[in-house]
């Protein structure tokens, strides 16, 4: 069984697309449609990598990202952000939240702006997971 | 009272319901002042009404139009969300095809939002006749505070306080109902945002009929005393407050007071009148929402959440 990759995205088309790319490249996909579900699955499935959207209902990717990167059990799980939100805005949000008293968090392992082609997604994952 | 009823009175999560033409990014930005009072999460909601995509004669459901409208909304929301994220705000979004009232209430329950913000759309008389007013329906069914956002005319917005902060000069209309007392509690939690409160009670002329001047003075004293209690509670939180007693028809007098005190917003509790009475006779909050040029924050009775999306 291939390495486990969790996809957290509210867009069913993106989940379907990511699932196909992951399966084609020998990974085991796990799907979550919002941050809350994503956090639950991280604890349950302990994925090797997370593909994370930022703008989602319930719990946004910003919150989930911070929760993971400040948790000693999960902070080493690599996260690839896959979002329509510009990387600059994501990084600024992290900076502001840290300034407001949050713990500092590292930048994500990769940031891909939607839409992304399958090859680019697969290459990014391969580079991180080896 | 179970735990579900013991909600915090801080507006931490705001549901911003927009069809874009009536409520834009400017409105959203002005509401970010609530951040000083604990706002940390904004949920953007766009409901595409079914009749825009469905049941066109000979075409049936127009999937392409749905996709186009959703993408259009998504592009706007991404743009807004980027700005909000950069201020450290949490943001989520929903773009759905359905009914504004039902889908808003459903999203409010799913998100456990503390405040609903909605703009008033101009509807054609025929639309109003057939489907009624979404806002009135939302007010009737929501168990969470609803802010009906309206842009104040530029001539009534002469100072920067009003331009930057829709809550800065609040007119609180009270009738001592549970909902209106809850409104006082909400204002207390907004002490860093609300600068000035004018508390007003409108006494009915009927209360004065046939009584002696002594009785009238007694009534005035009693009402002023009760208004002062509210003022004292607000002033204890550091909010500047003045009380005023008016006599007359409630809607007319509340709007008169709002104008006299150059209010930026009207805050009031929902009347809690029964559905049929509300529909056929109307209520003060309903008429204020319909007639007032001012934004209005309507605080409902505290009820359980379970029947919210009924």
CATH class of chain A: Alpha Beta
Number of strands of chain A: 5
Number of helices of chain B: 12
How would you sum up the major sheet of chain B?
Answer: 10 strands, mixed
Find the CATH superfamily of chain A: Response regulator
CATH topology of chain A: Rossmann fold
User: Number of folding domains of chain A?
Assistant: 1
Most extensive interface: pair and counts?
A-B, 20 and 19 residues
What's the CATH architecture of the largest domain in chain B? Answer: 3-Layer(aba) Sandwich
Major pleated sheet of chain A: 5 strands, parallel
Give the class-level CATH name of the largest domain in chain B.
Alpha Beta
Please give the radius of gyration of chain A in angstroms: 14 Å
According to DSSP, the number of beta strands of chain B is 10
Distance between the termini of chain B: 21 Å
Judged by helices, strands and strand pairing, the structural class of chain B is alpha/beta
Give a quick rundown of the structure.
The complex is a heterodimer of chains A (130) and B (310). Chain A has 130 residues and is α/β, with parallel strands linked by helices.
List strands and helices in order, with pairings.
The complex is a heterodimer of chains A (130) and B (310).
Chain A: E1 4-8, H1 12-24, E2 28-32, H2 35-45, E3 49-52, H3 61-69, E4 79-83, H4 87-99, E5 110-113, H5 118-129
Parallel strand pairs in A: 1-2, 1-3, 3-4, 4-5
Helix pairs in contact in A: 1-5, 2-3
Chain B: E1 13-17, H1 25-31, E2 41-49, H2 63-86, E3 90-98, H3 100-111, E4 115-119, H4 125-131, H5 134-141, E5 146-149, H6 160-164, E6 169-173, H7 178-189, E7 196-203, H8 205-208, H9 213-235, E8 240-247, H10 250-260, E9 265-269, H11 275-280, H12 284-291, E10 296-299
Parallel strand pairs in B: 1-2, 1-4, 2-3, 4-5, 6-7, 6-9, 7-8, 9-10
Antiparallel strand pairs in B: 5-10
Helix pairs in contact in B: 3-5, 10-12
């Amino acid at each position: 069984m291939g390495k486990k990759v969790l996809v957290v995205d509210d867009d069913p088309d993106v989940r379907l697309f990511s699932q196909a790319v992951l399966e084609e490249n020998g990974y085991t996909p796990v799907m979550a449609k919002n941050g809350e579900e994503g956090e639950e699955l991280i604890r349950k499935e302990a994925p090797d990598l997370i593909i994370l959207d930022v703008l989602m209902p319930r719990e946004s990717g910003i919150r989930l990202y911070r929760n993971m990167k400040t948790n000693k059990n999960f902070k080493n799980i690599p996260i690839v952000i896959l979002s329509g939100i510009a990387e600059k805005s994501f990084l600024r949000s992290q900076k502001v939240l840290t300034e407001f008293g949050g713990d500092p968090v590292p930048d994500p392992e990769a940031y891909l702006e939607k839409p992304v082609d399958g090859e680019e997604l697969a290459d990014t994952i391969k580079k991180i997971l080896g | 009272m179970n735990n579900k009823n013991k909600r915090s009175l801080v507006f931490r999560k705001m549901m911003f319901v927009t069809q874009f033409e009536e409520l834009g990014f400017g409105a959203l930005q002005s509401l970010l002042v609530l951040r000083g009072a604990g706002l940390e999460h904004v949920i953007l909601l766009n409901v595409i009404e079914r009749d825009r995509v469905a049941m066109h004669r000979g075409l049936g459901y127009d999937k392409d139009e749905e996709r186009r409208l959703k993408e259009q909304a998504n592009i706007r929301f991404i743009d807004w969300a980027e700005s909000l994220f950069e201020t450290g705000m949490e943001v989520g979004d929903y773009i759905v095809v359905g009914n504004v009232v039902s889908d808003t209430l459903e999203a409010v329950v799913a998100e456990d939002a503390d405040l609903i913000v909605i703009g008033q759309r101009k509807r054609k008389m025929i639309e109003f006749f057939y489907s009624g007013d979404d806002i009135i329906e939302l007010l009737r069914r929501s168990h969470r505070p609803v802010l009906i956002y309206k842009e104040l005319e530029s001539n009534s917005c002469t100072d920067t306080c009003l331009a930057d902060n829709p809550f800065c000069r609040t007119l609180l209309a009270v009738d001592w109902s549970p909902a209106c007392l809850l409104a006082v509690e909400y204002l207390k939690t907004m002490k860093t945002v609300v600068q000035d409160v004018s508390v007003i009670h409108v006494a009915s002329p009927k209360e004065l009929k046939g009584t002696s001047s002594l009785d009238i003075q007694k009534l005035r004293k009693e009402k002023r005393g009760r208004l002062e209690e509210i003022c004292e509670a607000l002033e204890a939180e550091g909010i500047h407050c003045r009380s005023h007693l008016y006599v007359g028809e409630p809607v007319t007098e509340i709007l008169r007071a709002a104008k006299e005190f150059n209010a930026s917003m009207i805050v009031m509790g929902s009347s809690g009148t029964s559905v049929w009475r509300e529909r056929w006779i109307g209520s003060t909050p309903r008429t204020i929402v319909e007639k007032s040029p001012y934004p209005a924050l309507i605080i409902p009775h505290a009820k359980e959440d379970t029947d919210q999306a009924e």
